[in-house]
């Protein structure tokens, strides 16, 4: 019985490590699209006075989130292929994650904003993100900084704050190549 329990524990702890190894391999290889969930934030709901153009009316990166974003950038710089382009949700937490991690102003893409409640608009957003993924043909990396629900909808994966999911087009959807948690 102890032998089975030990084997089960080894498997449980080995799986996340191999997922990270596969993720880093895909990042080193380049030619892929990276879906990055914004870094850690403070708060659990948007304030009542939310304004997309005013960061002080939004949930923003926490101190730990800013530190996490800088760590993401440092590790990408040391271990990943070159980043060709960064696109981001218009929300400040995503824009700030992109700026702190990659050191430049990302291209804002409204499709990367949190998914709309309206089914037609939601479908437009998903189609636009999938189009970005399908049409990327660079040899480096395209980074899309977005939100949990967008990544879940496209990949079926529920990433942590600051986690990347590396994808490639497959049919009408995507294939997950790996994940890296920071």
Automatic annotation (TrEMBL):
<dbReference type="Pfam" id="PF00300">
    <property type="entry name" value="His_Phos_1"/>
</dbReference>
<dbReference type="InterPro" id="IPR013078">
    <property type="entry name" value="His_Pase_superF_clade-1"/>
</dbReference>
<protein>
    <submittedName>
        <fullName>Histidine phosphatase</fullName>
    </submittedName>
</protein>
<feature type="signal peptide">
    <location>
        <begin position="1"/>
        <end position="19"/>
    </location>
</feature>
<keyword id="KW-0732">Signal</keyword>
<dbReference type="InterPro" id="IPR029033">
    <property type="entry name" value="His_PPase_superfam"/>
</dbReference>
């Amino acid at each position: 019985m102890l032998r089975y329990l030990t084997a089960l524990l080894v498997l449980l702890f080995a799986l996340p490590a191999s997922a990270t190894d596969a993720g880093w391999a895909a990042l080193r290889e380049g030619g892929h699209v990276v879906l990055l969930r914004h870094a850690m934030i403070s708060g659990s709901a948007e304030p009542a006075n939310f304004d997309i153009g005013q960061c002080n009316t939004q949930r923003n990166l926490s101190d730990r989130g800013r530190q996490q974003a800088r760590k993401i950038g440092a590790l990408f710089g040391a271990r990943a292929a070159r980043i060709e382009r960064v696109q981001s949700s218009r929300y400040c937490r995503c824009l700030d994650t992109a700026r702190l991690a990659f050191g430049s102003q990302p291209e804002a893409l409204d499709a990367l904003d949190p998914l709309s409640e309206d089914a037609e608009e939601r479908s437009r957003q998903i189609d636009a993100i999938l189009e970005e993924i399908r049409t990327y043909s660079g040899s480096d990396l395209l980074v899309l900084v977005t939100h949990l629900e967008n990544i879940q909808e496209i990949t079926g994966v529920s990433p942590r704050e600051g986690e990347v999911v590396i994808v490639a087009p497959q049919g009408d959807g995507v294939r997950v190549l790996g994940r890296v948690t920071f």
